[in-house]
Amino acid sequence: MFNFKNKIDRKYFVIELIFFVFICFISPIISDLEFSYYEQNNVLRFAESVEARLVWGTYSFAFYTIYYWVFLKGYVFKKRIFPIIISICFFIILSHLYDKYIMNYTISKFSFLSDEMQARALKDFNKTKLYFIISYILNRILFTIVGFAFLIRSLQQDEQMSVLNEQKLISELAYLKAQLQPHFFFNTLNNIYALALKKSDNTAPLVAKLSEMMRYILYKSESKLVLLESEINFIENYIEVERVRYPCLIKIDFEFQGIDSYSQIGPLLLLPFIENAFKHGVQEETKEGFVHLLICKMESELIMELSNSISSKKANDFVGIGLINVRKRLDIQYPNRYNLEQINNGKVYQMRLTLLLG
After folding, report:
1. Which position among 9, 65, 81, 196 has the lowest Cβ density within 10 Å, counted as fewest Cβ atoms?
2. What is the residue extent of each domain of the chain?
3. 275 DSSP 8-state letter
4. What is the DSSP string of 161-172?
5. Please, what CATH class does the domain formed by 166-356 belong to?
6. Residue 268 region, left (φ>0) first, then alpha (ψ -120 to 50), else beta?
């Protein structure tokens, strides 16, 4: 038996109610309107049957909904074909008994109904023969209700799959972010440690910048989307940290264009590319090196262009955890909405990311 309270989703419950209201009340009234217009040549004559349609519709509504929610829907959702067939057979028999004895008897006793309708109900109740109109019940009622039940089952299963897939994507994103954050902090703490060993005056400013970035990561990275403007500010802080670490011979250029105050992006999505450029590109250079970064937004499209020199010791080892994860994140969060081009000739690394934000 179908568990009404626990199983019926509110949204689909409303859809189901509307469906039964339509087949029990609206559809018969429309049929009377058409008959009055085409056969009786007076559309207003449909009003003569409104009382009967409302009363019969109420009885039908009660019977159909009980059958649907108590029996049919549970069998359909569990794919129990044999019980569905048995329930259909019982529906045909019980609906006729219900109409003849319960509906006609009670209508004949309701004094607030018209005398004509009471008399008709009493006449039908007193008939000795019970006729089973199987074709009409099957074609107009049962097949419609059973088909509707399968439709609702299909829609609910699709929605459940969509929710499960979304939860899976959220879990995967959380996992990838969890990998990224320790990776980022590990690298930055190593930088601070190196400066502390040299007793550099830049150690304190670096710690302050790291504290600001940690605050951003703690409060923003769990969000699905953050303001692009905030993400750019975070990148600026990161680059300022790197400027402190590297000598003036290392040329660091960062330019951004068209950044507005309302566009959104996945948090820490661009950082792995930039971090990778510093870690593998200039960290071990003893002479000149460079990192050139351009982030530009045009309408709904974000373009990021990055180029950097490659350390000779890192020429064959340019892909870290960050870049692997960011590709996975792009696939999950921006499927078919991004294009990533990368060129590595052993001396210079170039990448261009085009991202459709919204």
Report:
1. 81
2. 4-132, 166-356
3. H
4. HHHHHHHHHHHH
5. alpha beta
6. left
